[in-house]
Design the sequence.
């Protein structure tokens, strides 16, 4: 995987004074993928990103981006990344077009291609009709897009975006997501966020960081499964059936995979909550049993296995301490 | 090098967009106008603009901090320093670019005093060579002043703090050193040799005697060397401060 990874982080540590902001983390981001970098505020996301973008030197450990070391080959790294810092700071007195041209020149884009690059990123980020506007008059959403446009200017191999959808309205968030999905494949994207739905919708892999350490990583699906496994008592299968409550309860309780059945509501339509080994086979068995007995199956859903619950579970200091004990 | 000029151009533009720049320009023109009216422009006098240039530093030591205060402070405060330093450009280019942008703006400001030379030449025939050396001296002194201002701007994210600290140091160069030197000479009747040396150093580091020479048409290599080494010293300090911020 190493040869095919655009971001390789090994035992990276950053301490501020005595406080370890990032503590011995390792991960890889494969080329062309979108990876979500998830964590509560103050978990070390921004510090990690600042080390990857050569803004801060690591205290120990190594990181390489696009095949170059962030410390010893900083210029090579910097010319191959596009970076959107938190809050997308810009010069408010400049016009959008001017600013993009200025950034392009700073990033070494040749004079002949500069105009075309500016137009192309402006179009990609829906800035076309705002090109002549002073940045100070733009809304937060437009400024955020300008930041993304800036990051895309040099057509970078690796894109690092720190909370790209902060301050955007729901429509803009959806548009940004669409844009990120378009970018995958052409660029390797590391996306930091604390909005979970964003990660579930856009990212192929998720890295969860908390208190400076990596708490979990995998695809969103894997993490959900992991959540179900860790928290088997918490995960429940809720079944809604039209039929005699007691008989339904006995029929479902008799299944070997089911450990416990609880009646949530009684009546002509009853709702039961099951716990145990809740896999696909069980759900199929339940469906065929219910239908076979002549009852009607109205709904079947699992609860307690969302990414959000998993996130809360592993980033909550209380649970972590319990696990350590 | 191209990127250095890109930064210089942006800083120059940024300065022209800020209202502070125009206030500074007006204050400077008023002050120089005052010098012109009181010391130079009188009927029957020799058409010598020298005194006007010799006291220019008294205004510039308050003007320059306003030019330089935001150069780095504002980048830190707004977070733009992050976009800047993650771009493929060296820290020294950033320092030099900002310095050159501020220097260009400074040249526009001191250039505005040419108005008074024009007025003078309408009424008399001033010697233009001392005017040329005066401007040369002003640019050299400006370089040192700007590099001091740039250094303090790189030290803090508070513009006001940067302005006040650089102002304090410039006042030291502009008035204080010379005053102390003069004071030492006057209160001690037979000063020991080391005190003489201190006094000489103090006078050497003061702007006024140096500017007197330039305004008379004298280009003294020791003065040129003083301003150039001073500028280089403070630009290097600025670079070091910028570098050291990474490690904190």
Sequence:
């Amino acid at each position: 995987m190493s040869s095919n990874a655009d971001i390789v982080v090994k035992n990276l540590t950053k301490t501020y004074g005595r406080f370890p902001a990032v503590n011995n983390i390792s991960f890889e981001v494969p080329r062309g993928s979108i990876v979500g970098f998830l964590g509560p505020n103050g978990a070390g996301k921004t510090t990690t990103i600042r080390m990857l973008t050569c803004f801060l030197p690591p205290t120990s450990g190594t990181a390489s981006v696009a095949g170059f070391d962030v410390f010893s080959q900083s210029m090579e790294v910097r010319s191959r990344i596009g970076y959107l810092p938190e809050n997308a700071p810009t010069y408010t007195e400049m016009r959008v077009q001017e600013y993009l041209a200025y950034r392009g020149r700073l990033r070494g884009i040749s004079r002949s291609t500069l105009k075309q690059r500016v137009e192309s990123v402006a179009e990609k980020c829906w800035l076309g009709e705002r090109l002549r506007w002073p940045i100070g008059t733009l809304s937060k959403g437009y400024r955020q897009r300008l930041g993304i446009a800036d990051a895309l200017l040099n057509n970078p191999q690796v894109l690092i975006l720190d909370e790209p959808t902060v301050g955007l309205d729901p429509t803009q968030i959806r548009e940004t997501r669409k844009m990120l999905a378009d970018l995958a494949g052409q660029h390797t994207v590391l996306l930091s966020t604390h909005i979970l739905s964003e990660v579930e919708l856009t990212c192929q892999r998720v890295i969860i960081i908390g208190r400076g350490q990596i708490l979990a990583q995998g695809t969103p699906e894997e993490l959900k499964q992991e959540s179900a496994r860790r928290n088997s008592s918490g995960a429940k299968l809720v079944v809604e059936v039209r039929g005699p409550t007691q008989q339904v309860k006995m029929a479902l309780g008799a299944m070997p995979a089911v450990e416990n059945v609880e009646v949530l509501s009684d009546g002509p339509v009853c709702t039961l909550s099951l716990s145990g080994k809740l896999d696909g086979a069980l759900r199929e068995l339940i469906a065929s049993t219910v239908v076979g007995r002549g009852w009607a199956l109205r709904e079947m859903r699992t609860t307690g296995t969302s990414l959000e619950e998993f996130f809360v579970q592993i980033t909550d200091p209380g649970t972590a301490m319990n696990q350590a004990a | 090098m191209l990127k250095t000029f890109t930064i210089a151009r942006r800083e120059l533009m940024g300065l022209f967009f800020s209202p502070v720049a125009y206030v500074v320009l007006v204050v400077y023109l008023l002050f120089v106008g005052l010098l012109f009216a009181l010391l130079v422009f009188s009927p029957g006098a020799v058409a010598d603009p020298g005194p006007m240039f010799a006291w220019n530093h008294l205004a510039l030591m308050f003007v320059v901090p306003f030019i330089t205060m935001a150069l780095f402070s504002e980048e830190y405060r707004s977070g733009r320093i992050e976009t800047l330093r993650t771009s493929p450009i060296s820290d020294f280019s950033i320092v030099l670019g900002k310095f050159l942008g501020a220097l260009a703006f400074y040249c526009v400001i001191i250039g505005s005093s040419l108005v008074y030379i024009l007025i003078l030449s309408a009424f008399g025939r001033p010697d233009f060579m001392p005017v040329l050396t005066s401007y040369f001296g002003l640019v050299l002194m400006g370089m040192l002043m700007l590099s001091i201002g740039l250094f303090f701007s790189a030290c803090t994210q508070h513009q006001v703090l940067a302005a006040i600290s650089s102002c304090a140091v410039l006042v030291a160069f502009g008035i204080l050193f010379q005053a102390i030197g003069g004071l030492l000479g006057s209160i001690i009747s037979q000063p020991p040799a080391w005190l003489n040396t201190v006094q000489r150093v103090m006078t050497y580091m003061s702007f006024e005697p140096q500017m007197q020479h330039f305004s008379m048409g004298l280009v003294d290599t020791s003065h040129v060397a003083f301003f150039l080494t001073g500028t280089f010293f403070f630009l290097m300090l600025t670079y070091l401060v910028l570098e050291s911020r990474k490690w904190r």
Q: What stands out?
A: The first helix of chain A runs from residue 45 to 52. Residues 320-325 of chain A have pLDDT under 50 and may be disordered. Residues 2-227 of chain A form a domain with the Rossmann fold fold (CATH 3.40.50.300).
